[in-house]
């Protein structure tokens, strides 16, 4: 089944966040694609902000998201039962992606001109009356 999606934020071709037509989000990180509910994006953003504010605590948890130090010095991000091993640079890239996607989703919808056939179509004037058909 083919699903259509809209790219919200992109760091590299293999690291991006897309919005699906069914209202869910996809976090694409190299070879992994993780589906995130739209209402959970704020929880993930809050968790990443807390991690940055508290200068890397041992473990943070928000809902079913967990962020912890890994034994090799990296950072593990667990999204329910799926985990990503990240470096500190990767975590900054991911945080930027999440913030960009969240800002786009919270922005007001721009007002568009109301034209009968959408933008780009010009209004057509009525053709001039032909004299032979005039009464």
Structural class: alpha+beta
How far apart are the termini? 61 Å
Radius of gyration: 23 Å
Number of strands: 8
User: Low-confidence parts, pLDDT < 50 over ≥5 residues?
Assistant: none
Strand order of the largest sheet: 1-2-3-4
Largest sheet composition: 4 strands, antiparallel
> What do the pLDDT scores average to?
80
Q: Helicity range of the residues? A: 10-25%
The outline comes out as elongated
What's the order of the H and E elements?
EEEEHEEEEH
Helical region count? 2
Beta strand % = 25-35%
Keywords:
4-stranded antiparallel sheet, 2 helices, 135 residues, 33% strand, alpha+beta, single chain, 24% helix
Indicate the topology.
Layout: E1 5-12, E2 15-20, E3 24-29, E4 32-37, H1 41-53, E5 59-62, E6 65-69, E7 75-79, E8 82-86, H2 88-106
Antiparallel strand pairs: 1-2, 2-3, 3-4, 5-6, 6-7, 7-8
Would you kindly provide a written description of the structure presented here, covering whatever features stand out?
This protein is an alpha+beta fold. Helix content is 24%, strand content 33%. It has helices at residues 41-53, 88-106, and strands at residues 5-12, 15-20, 24-29, 32-37, 59-62, 65-69, 75-79, 82-86. The protein has a four-stranded antiparallel sheet. A four-stranded antiparallel sheet has the order 5-6-7-8. A hairpin with a 2-residue loop joins strand 7 and strand 8. The termini are far apart.
């Amino acid at each position: 089944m083919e699903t259509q999606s809209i790219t919200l934020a992109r760091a590299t071709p293999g690291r991006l966040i897309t919005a699906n037509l069914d209202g869910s989000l996809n976090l694409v990180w190299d070879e992994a694609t993780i589906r995130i509910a739209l209402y959970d994006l704020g929880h993930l953003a809050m968790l990443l902000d807390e991690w940055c504010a508290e200068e890397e605590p041992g473990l943070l948890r928000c809902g079913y998201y967990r962020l912890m130090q890994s034994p090799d010095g990296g950072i593990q991000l667990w999204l329910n039962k799926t985990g990503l091993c990240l470096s500190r640079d990767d975590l900054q890239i991911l945080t930027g992606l999440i913030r960009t996607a969240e800002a786009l989703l919270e922005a007001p919808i721009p007002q568009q001109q109301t034209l009968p056939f959408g933008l780009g179509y010009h209004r057509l004037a009525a053709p001039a009356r032909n004299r032979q058909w005039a009464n």
